[in-house]
Amino acid sequence: MNTLKAEKRSLDTKAKKLRREGYVTGNVFGKELKESIPVQITKKDAERLLKTCNKGSQIMLDVEGRKLDVLIKEIDYNSMKRQIDEIDFQALVSGEEVHSVAEVVLLNHEKVVNGLIQLKLHEIAYKAVPEALVDKVEINMENMKIGDTVLVKDLDIASNEKIHLMTDPEAVVVTVTEIHNKAVPEEETAAEEEK
Length: 195
Description:
Elements: E1 3-8, H1 15-20, E2 23-29, E3 37-42, H2 43-52, E4 58-63, E5 66-78, E6 83-91, E7 98-107, E8 115-119, E9 123-128, E10 136-140, E11 149-151, H3 156-159, E12 163-165, E13 172-178, H4 186-194
Parallel strand pairs: 1-4, 2-6, 7-10
Antiparallel strand pairs: 1-3, 2-3, 4-5, 5-6, 7-9, 8-13, 9-12, 11-13
């Protein structure tokens, strides 16, 4: 499990100022915490973590020596500045179900050459105890052809007895459709050749 170091953040300092100083702000909340803990993480550490983890990932958060088993609940990304602004964490309680999401990852998509891959769902919502959390659902596209569709109920996560799906099992996750090229009318081609 990945560990991320964080410091408690003083609410006297504005989040904007901390971001300018190279920090990502965040909050840790949870049932067994008396109150949420405002935190700050160095931008470098946050970026390194998000290379391997994402929303729905379970990590160990080290807040000034206090280790917390947490779920990455939300990531606020500023696309204008191309930076992470905030990450929120939910402290997990062993044996207690939490709402989470698993990111859909397509493997071998480059091997589908005759069709157009359409990813309809980027994440699958579910409830599970901390021990059963899943942060990614992988779909191997290698043998898929035009007309093939993968539904939520076709995924491994749907047959996992420890996971309660919140996303409709009949929902389409990914489909391969025919590529339709628009034909140019003959008159236009003839007119072009005359020029």
